[in-house]
Amino acid sequence: MTSALEILQSRFGFDRFRLQQQAIIDTLTSGGDALVLMPTGGGKSICYQIPAILRAGTGIVISPLIALMQDQVDALAQNGIAAAFLNSSQGLDAQQSIRRRLLAGELDLLYVAPERAVGDDFLELLGRCELALIAIDEAHCVSQWGHDFRPDYRELYRLHERFPDVPRIALTATADGRTLREIEQQLQLEDAARYIHSFDRPNIFYRIAQGDGGRQRLWDFIGERHPRDAGIVYCLSRKNTEAVAEFLAARGRVALPYHAGLDKATRAEHQRRFLRDDGVIIVATIAFGMGIDKPDVRFVAHLGLPKNIESYYQETGRAGRDGEPADAWLIYGLQDIVKLRQMMQLSDADEAYKRVLHQKMEALLGLCEQTGCRRQALLGYFGETLAEPCGHCDNCVEPPATWDATEAAQMALSCVYRTGQRFGAAYVIDVLLGNERDRILQNRHHELSTFGIGELDADEWRSLFRQLIARGYLRSDERHGGLSLAPASKPLLAGAERLELRRFDKRKRTARPAKAAAPADLAAADQPLFEALREQRRAWAEQQAVPPYVILHDKTLRAICAERPQSSDALALVPGIGASKLERYGDKLLEIVRRNPVASSESEVEAID
Ligand code: ADP
Ligand code: ZN
To answer: Are the CB atoms for 316 and 328 separated by under 8 Å?
Structure first.
């Protein structure tokens, strides 16, 4: 009998298992059940695909994301594995033919949506064939408390009742302890072996910046770090997604808006181009993302604050699913914090609910303003401890300077007080700066002792106000945005408490310093080969009407550039090239490598020509 490792190598083209893949596969292959929590991009699919191939019969995969089934089946076909899906997007003929293939025992894997999986028809159909296993993907959809709740998931125990001897595996990337227990109970998986992995996404570099001019700084970041890469930019409003998409397009990037206000056809077209074309940027509200499985999203940027840390982690988690270096980049300003605080006050939810919202918001602001390792804070929020600072986030790479802001904060607070606690930050800052604006003169606020006090400039005052609001010393009125003192400001004003704050970063730079450059950045000498490979991949993808990453991953192209294989045997050793891809694409790839030799010096280029 072939071993799991042989299949990994020959069919998928990878040389070793990752994390606990091997153990999970062994559990299923020998007939046991498994519950798997693995981060996005960790390699969950293989955990059921390989046992489905090893065991007799067909593996049934329950997946809530109809849009993804096609990609998964296409990707399996590229590796020479027989898979199909059944869902409502297909015509009756197509469904009939798949039923026939299923009954004939020709399929290793069959993907179905949850609502279909528990229908009597389908159960009856399954009763007539041999089942290798049942895989329940995105198992957190079973949780009533999560945002992806799918009632049909609660019916899935029926599959188990009907086929008690078929091994099952439930998989998710987003579950806290409570959700895991819910999955176990609802799916009757109490006896399943648990494989719980860290939430960490080590390939993602986290950066959170404060200040104004977000759009320009976004462009600096994209221009410097991702001049050709695909990415997602999240904005808070529909209007803003369109404006930012235009802004990026005017700078020569393909950037497409995506939000719930666009008609269905436009949305589908933009999503399709994001998936199928290389290097497209989607500028979206949170309406975009669920079910986006594109592995080579190289950055996720937020213009403005996400809803809470859970959303932030889920949204940034869409970057770098292929395990290659990726960036999570966020910028927010004073207005964001004011808006968030106001929303909190306005919400007419009951008190208990508000309290939870409030805690979540505090946690998010804490993450943004903190001066220590972001990854430690993020993982800590999900109940995981990272012993050492990660060395791969903005605060680790450039530890932020702090300053004793006590005196300046006292000036700011007392200026808010003396101007009557009814003006917004812009006005109060003008007073602090000593700007003789008409309104200020009318209000005789130029006569206050806090007029023109202190040594900060406008940017520094704004940074200070942002942090005072973020930390709850100042409150902002829900209707007019007027600032007032919160009870927490008392000890500070009274001199009973000191305040240490992040220093305002004048450089407004977003790029990371050279020493932290992404390890997988291509050497300049490899660029022409990489582009040639990419071009060929695009052509193959077009011919077969599949996304480029279904053909070959970026990682594989990069490895070809690094290894420069000269023979079919050498090419077979490149990760992601299994027997099936070697046969289909090998000759052409080798030819491209030969046509694009390394240009290490000018004379060498001439010699080769
Ligand atoms: P998940 O579903 O956990 O987000 P996938 O199953 O889509 O992740 O796998 C993520 C990527 O990792 C895929 O490109 C997959 O081919 C690759 N991968 C999975 N297992 C391995 C392995 N053992 N070695 C190398 N790459 C792997
Ligand atoms: Zn860190």
So the answer is: yes
CB 445 within 8 A of CB 414: no
SS3 at position 258: strand
- Number of Cβ atoms within 10 Å of the Cβ of 531: 14
What is the per-residue pLDDT for 512?
A: 44
Q: Are 171 and 48 in contact (CB under 8 A)?
A: yes
- What was the pLDDT predicted at 514? 38
Residues paired with residue 232 on neighbouring β-strands, in sequence order: 282, 300
pLDDT of residue 1: 64
554, with CB counted inside 10 A (0-12, 13-18, 19+), is: buried
How confident is the model at residue 604, as a pLDDT?
38
Instruction: Provide block-wise average pLDDT over 10 residues at a time, the chain (609 residues).
Output: 90 90 96 93 93 97 87 93 91 93 96 92 95 96 81 93 96 83 92 90 94 91 94 94 96 95 93 91 85 87 90 91 93 84 70 72 84 89 84 93 91 94 92 92 90 86 83 75 87 90 61 40 83 93 90 92 93 93 95 85 37
50, 25 Cβ separation under 8 angstroms? yes
How many other C-beta atoms are found inside a 10 Å radius of the C-beta of residue 158?
14
Q: What is the DSSP string of 542-553?
A: HHHTS-HHHH--
What residues contact 388, with CB distance under 8 A and at least 6 apart?
A: none
Distance CA 600, CA 136 (A): 50
The DSSP element (H or E) to which 465 belongs, if any, is helix 458-470
The best mutation among 12, 554, 558 to test binding of ligand 1, ranked by most ligand atoms within 8 Å of the C-beta, falls on 12
Residue 324 CB less than 6 A away from ligand 1:
no
Instruction: Please report the pLDDT score of residue 510 as a whole number.
Output: 42
For ligand 1, atom 21, the nearest C-alpha belongs to 43
Contact status, residue 96 vs residue 106, Cβ threshold 8 Å: no
- Planar angle of CA 254, 255, 258, nearest 5 degrees: 145
Domains in the chain: ranges and CATH? 4-196 (3.40.50.300), 204-332 (3.40.50.300), 402-502 (1.10.10.10), 524-595 (1.10.150.80)
Contact 364, 308 (CB under 8 A): yes
Percent helix, strand, coil in the chain, to 5, is: 50, 15, 40
Q: Which atom of ligand 1 is nearest to the CA of 75?
A: 16
Encoded amino acid at 275, one letter: L
Measured between its terminal Cα atoms, the distance across the chain in Å is 51
Give the pLDDT of residue 340.
76
Report the residue among 321, 552, 553, 577 best suited for mutation to probe ligand 1: largest number of ligand atoms under 8 A from its CB. 321
Whole-prediction pTM value? 0.73
Distance, CA of 92 to chain centre: 36
